[in-house]
User: Fold this.
Amino acid sequence: FKEHMDYLAEANFNVVDLAKALDDIRNGVPLPDKAVAITFDDAYRNIYQNGFPILKEHGFPFTVFINTQPIEQKNRSFLTWDQIKEMTQSGGVFANHTVSHPYMARMEEGESHGQWKARMEKEVADVEAALEEHLGTSPKMLAYPYGESNQEIRTLLTDQGIVGFGQQSGVVSKDSNFADLPRFPAAGNYAKLSTLKTKLNSMPMPLEKVEAGGDFAGEMPVSLTLSFKDGQYRLKDLACYVSGQGKAALNWLDDTTVVAAAEKPFGVGRGRINCTMPNRAGSQYYWFSNVWIRAGEDQRYVSQKN
Assistant:
């Protein structure tokens, strides 16, 4: 993490406050060059112990999406409200990650659709209330646990003026879906700085339209139809990659529309297609990712048609 933060400083990235940056994007206000926002999911105490001193040293703003149940239970592995308040004094913003970190698109055993929806409404509302109570304000942002949502959940957030974040890779632009914004992972298997540099320098794919066939994958291989905006792009250099399968087959329907297809069905869980394309100079990449859920028989997803 220190290596990542030092790189942002040395390479003159503009680390921006996430909520303000999103407001600017939606209002047509240009962001500074090399703008990047730092986010964490969950309320783990090691953010305070290991991450916060480094962030404070650099003066970087950051956002933590918190699930409040372990905080209220005073779990020693999670942040306390006092630590959270201290972090807000040095650029920290705290946002919604639900109360109990559920799979939001799944029903519990024996639960009706109405009960599921009421439970999800409470998962969101109780964190909003806790943020208001303890911090005096909420930034009206939520990161979906496990990156999973469906159209009902996304509509629930939109109706409340809450911006939603998934876990699919990509760059935010004014054309993004503000109920399911992309982010790049930078921990665990994705922590290598050399590959992170490429992502940090990437640009939003210039897409007019995306068709993915919904949130769910089934027994057939998934496909993704991308329609590009007018412009001078290196479309012949577009490459798409399927989780666990390698390169996707590309079928160009016309000069600006392509279908990227997986060869085999996804296994149970989340699968994705990542597409990249070099810019005209070859110095940066456009990037787009789409995620599907392949439901297991016993996982009780609310709908595989949303």
Remarks:
- The chain has a mean pLDDT of 95.
- Residues 113-135 form the longest helix (23 residues).
